[in-house]
Design a protein that fits this description.
single chain, mainly beta, about 5% helix, nine-stranded antiparallel beta sheet, disordered N terminus
Length: about 130
């Protein structure tokens, strides 16, 4: 007698994750695009030693500050991050457990499955 079972693959992507993976611009993404980097109107900075990435509009109205516990490097790695997002009259902070789900073209896609929030950042190599 043969018994077979079906187990959900951990890498089976959700609808939100698939939609997030279709994004190409640096930014912070959730149910809506929270902050999308635009090279014409924004700037970004990386500090490898401090495990930090920051996106900001040129006029200073929009800011996304990401501080990682450890530097994200490898596909499928999970890293903790504190993200602060500021726009006029709103300031939000997120503590996320982000999994590196894609790495290509010197960019990294990191996704928090519980909160359904993702970030796309430049690859941070030391």
């Amino acid at each position: 007698m043969l018994f077979c079972g079906c187990q959900k693959d951990e890498r089976q992507k959700t609808k939100n994750e698939i939609e997030f993976l279709s994004k190409e611009n640096y930014g912070l993404y959730g149910k809506n695009d929270i902050f999308t980097y635009n090279a014409q109107t924004c700037q970004y900075s990386l500090n490898i030693n401090r495990h930090m990435c920051r996106f900001q509009s040129d006029n200073g109205e929009y800011l996304t500050h990401i501080k990682f516990e450890t530097l994200p490097k490898d596909l499928d790695e999970i890293v903790e991050a504190n993200i602060t997002y500021i726009k006029p009259s709103i300031k939000k902070s997120y503590n996320l457990n982000l999994k590196i789900i894609e790495h290509k073209n010197n960019k990294m896609w990191l996704w928090d499955y519980k909160q359904q929030i993702g970030i796309i950042i430049p690859y941070m190599n030391d």
